[in-house]
Amino acid sequence: MGAPLARQAGRELRLAFDLRFEDLYSRDGLYQLDQAFCAWLAERAADLAPRLTAARQQPDLPAKEEAALLIELSPHLDAFIARLFGIEEQTGSLRERHDELGALNKVKWKFVKRQALLKVSADELQGFDGGQARAQIEHWLGQRFEELAFSQAILAWQEAGDAEAEERLALAMRYCAWAVTTDEGHAAHPVSVLFRQPGKVDPFDLLEHGSVRQERGVTIHTIDPAHIRRREGFALTDAGTDLRGALDQANYCIWCHNQGKDSCSKGLREKPGPDGKAAFKKTVFGVKQAGCPLEERISEFHLVKTQGHSISALAMITIDNPMAAATGHRICNDCMKACIYQKQTPVDIPQAETRSLKDVLELPWGFEIYSLLTRWNPLNIRRPLPLPTSGYKVLVAGMGPAGFTLSHHLLNDGHSVVGIDGLKIEPLPGRLSGVDEFGKRVPFEPIEDVDTLFEPLDDRVMAGFGGVAEYGITVRWNKNFLKVIRLLLERRDAFAMHGGVRLGSTLSVDDAFAMGFDHIALAMGAGRPTTLDIPNGLARGVRTASDFLMALQLTGAAKTDSIANMQVRLPVVVI
Questions:
Q1: C-alpha neighbours within 13 Å on the C-beta side of residue 563
Q2: Is residue 11 predicted with pLDDT exceeding 80?
Q3: How far apart are CA 373 and CA 318, in angstroms?
């Protein structure tokens, strides 16, 4: 059994509160960490600490009361983890960046939306010279036009309140209206947070820039070439939003958990029937609006994010969604379908969620912080720590999203887990995973810079872990997150993983129970398997066409600059 090492490439991780790196990966160490947090909280918020203790003892709090407690805890959790990892300076700089961007959001929603768009008429914009106005504004700013600097200037002019400031505000108001409502304004600011207001949604015209024409009796659908995104090669085509964009969406959210209206989390309901039950509403396309399947605390994490508590925003997410690296942008949007905004652009919750994860991962030791929050999370009043060892052993068949998520929860419930997958799973270096190429536990190192885990997707060799997330999702999603998810599991002593093992052929159900497993979990995909209805179709050594092609995919056969290379034991019979 390999213990964690506290040194990486000459840099030593020194934790506060008399804790060692290996303590973060043991239940006893996490208990010690939890005690340190409770003591820290008692010193800094004497009234809050007993409320947390009482909530843990009686966790069935009303939703509004629980949310208020978690939000109050957030700044203290941020400060504690920053102290634990010695990154107070970096988290302070990140919080300052949040505060700085507050000017942008304040001007967007209060000045642009509530003043410029209401007070400036279309007639006033007739003949308005946006280029000349921009030049004048740049002269006042003393720099080239930049949205944040412009927003800060508007707030300063509002505070000044003199005649000169009023003159500048009048021009700024007209410029904002021009930038938001005119084609010329859109062209001048093609990528903008400040000048992009939510629009009305017509469910029957979602592709507004599309066009339809008839040619020789054939209906041809085309889109504006400017909207075409070429996907040649495997490089990431959508890096997602930055902090500016995430805070824009978090501030657009109306934080309706206080009113119990957070339909993004709980779903949109019809009026209760005679039996008192209320069914979920459906979209015009018949899609049920059930909200987030995990009932993630979306409204709460948005609010905490706008307050600048980045670590706690992620902690709020991981209460219900510890595998957040596998969700969010380009993965799921059930939350958006049930957003409270049904007649206008919904909040882009997946973008804000993934950016919140990235903001923490990009901190020094950010991976270790995220990893820690999946095991110890004081905002999770029902299970802040993994449960004691149960003695049960569970075989999880399939290491896709269902399998690795189930494995995580089983581990936190105190069970031992062995994950298997029919795909060959390439080993990771033992210094990262804590497992060598022979499956033996070895010491592993802390990860200071998450970029050391990432590879260019054009050059990345598929590792086999992740199921459909590995071989089925396009380059719009960063598959480097699969390594992050894998390390969350593989570093844990109670988890083992074996590739190239197919339940039902390589390993039968009887074999598994004979080996001492108490339960078998089937996480092998929701689709119907494409197997041939022939005798011995799943015998050892028999591969279906889809399985064979998947193996080629995993060896890089789809890449134009590589040679397909798959090991096959001879002799081979091809039907």
A1: 2
A2: no
A3: 7
What is the rounded CA–CA span in Å between residue 73 and residue 66?
11
Find out whether 454 and 475 touch, Cβ atoms under 8 Å.
no
Helices (H), 338-467: 349-361, 366-373, 401-412, 430-433
pLDDT at 249 over 70: yes
Compute the distance between CA of residue 436 and CA of residue 311 in angstroms, rounded to an integer.
Answer: 32
Q: Which amino acid would we find at residue 567?
A: Q
Residue 538: band (very low, low, confident or very high) from pLDDT cuts 50, 70, 90? confident
- CA-nearest of 143, 115, 134 to 184 is 134
Burial of 196 (0-12, 13-18, 19+ CB in 10 A): middle
Alpha helices in 11-86 (DSSP H): 27-44, 48-57, 63-85
Using CB atoms within 10 Å of the CB of residue 100, give its burial: 0 to 12 exposed, 13 to 18 middle, 19+ buried. Answer: middle
> For residues 427 and 430, what is the distance between their CA atoms, to the nearest angstrom?
8
Chain centroid to Cα 347, Å, comes to 15
Query: What is the chain's length?
Result: 575
How far apart CA 219 and CA 204 sit, in angstroms, is 18
Letter for the amino acid at 91? T
Amino acid letter, residue 526 = A
Higher pLDDT, 222 or 338: 338
Give the residue carrying structure tokens 């964690």: 4
- DSSP annotation of 473: S
Please tell me the distance from the alpha carbon of residue 361 to that of residue 374, in angstroms, as a whole number.
13
Contact present, 496 and 418 (Cβ < 8 Å): yes
* Listed residue (417, 389, 388) closest to 403, CA to CA: 417
CA-CA distance, 456 to 451, in Å (whole number)? 11
| Residues pairing with 269 in the sheet | 280
Name the residue among 120, 139, 111, 132 with its Cα closest to residue 178: 120
- The pLDDT-based confidence of 68 (bands split at 50, 70, 90) is very high
Whether residue 560 is predicted with pLDDT greater than 80 in this model: the reply is: no
Q: How confident is the model at residue 296 (pLDDT cuts 50, 70, 90)?
A: very high
Q: What is the identity of the amino acid at 416?
A: S
CB-based contacts of 380, cutoff 8 Å, min separation 6: 318, 319
CA distance 259 to 267: 14
Expressed in percent and rounded to 5, the helix, strand and coil fractions of the chain are: 45, 10, 45
Beta strands in 216-310 (DSSP E): 218-222
Q: What is the pLDDT, as a whole number, of residue 527? A: 62
Let me know if 175 is exposed, middle or buried by CB neighbors in 10 A (0-12, 13-18, 19+).
buried
pLDDT of residue 565: 56
CA separation for the pair 402, 525 (Å, rounded): 8
Q: How many Cα atoms are found within 13 Å in the side-chain-facing hemisphere of 559?
A: 17
Number of H helices, E strands in the chain: 22, 8
Q: What angle do CA 64, 65, 66 make, to 5 degrees?
A: 95
Amino acid at site 438: F
In sequence order, which residues have a C-beta less than 8 Å from that of residue 222 and are 6 or more positions away? 210, 211, 212, 213
What residue type is assigned to position 56 of the chain? Answer: R
Six-digit token string for 561 = 């600059």
Q: Do 50 and 10 meet the contact criterion of CB atoms below 8 Å apart?
A: no
Rounded CA-CA distance 103/155 in Å is 8
